[in-house]
Here is the input.
Amino acid sequence: MPVKPNISFENLEVAFASKSNRDLKKMYLIFATINNNVAVSVGTKMANWAFALKLPIKGIMKKTMFGHFCGGEDIEDCQQAVDVLAKYKIHTILDYSVEGKGDEASYDATKNEILRTIERSAGDDNIPFAVFKVTGLGDYRIMTKIQEGKKLNEKESVSFEKLRNRVDALCHAAFKANTKILVDAEESWFQDVIDQMVYEAMEKYNQNTCIVYNTYQMYRHDMLERLKKAHQIASKKGYLHGAKLVRGAYMEKERDRAEEKKYKSPIQPTKEASDRDYNDALRYCVEHIENMGLVSGSHNEHSNILLTELISKYGIKPNDDRVYFAQLYGMSDNISYNLANAGYNVVKYVPYGPVEKVMPYLSRRAEENTSVAGQSSREFDLVKREIARRRK
Here is the structure.
């Protein structure tokens, strides 16, 4: 009979084991700021303004927001973060977080940088995954046009073929390096085109081991069925299905576009519906783990506990390479460090890139922490409690 996992995300000694008292004080200031909506709005605008005017604020950013949420400015800079995480049995995903300029040269530059992350991960157990966004490799407007069933002109057709080649080149490189590769989910109006490319890559590269993973945003009301259908097709065709589950990242944008264009919003009616489908997706993936790979990308404590219970229920070893927990660097350390301490596979997304070019990413992290109910307050409370614990 499965034993209920004995794990608590309230163990702050484990959660903050890698942090010095000075680190905690810095975190206190960062989350105190993020916990204030006005401070986030004003601070983000001022930082972008300062970079636009080429004011010398890079050093300040490196010691505050950038230093907390990012690993460095390039792959080599991230080594310290990789080493610290590895010390506590947490794996790394090097996440190139620079948004391209939207031209062929920038798409090629992004592809080449992702190839470098794959090369870096090859043979290093501490970096088992690479990751990319398809919009970093090609024009979303062309993908939108394809999904709408519109015919491409000659220039667009050439551009789309280049995009397909870039996606395949990254998946092929991951296959050769024996590195797992995650393809991020994006907006619904071109996600079908992304899915098609990813499933073609899975059929080529997931024959013997799960290399390529698609991402499923469970805040979409149709996503649980899409996940099941994709897995069933993979089973029928004889390849392994890689699934990364997230709740989602484009909710307001999705709702606004649906309202503007007068179609039914793809977003779940309530947060409870998203939570239900996320947890049902976990159950489905673990039930079918014999021909799946699962990455659970969640900062939700209940979902993470549920996955540990499912792992136990189905007799899966905590360190089974088919199941990973994932969180963002600089967030939810109470979840990541306690899971890793209990022997589960945990990966942290470690973003990197030149400070000024990672500002859009940092702005989103700050905004998400203020908009997600209780996230910044939760992080802030944990830091305060650990500071108080150490003073006793």
Q: What stands out?
A: The chain has 17 helices and eight strands. The longest strand covers residues 346-352. The mean pLDDT is 91. Residues 12 and 382 are 8 Å apart (CA to CA).
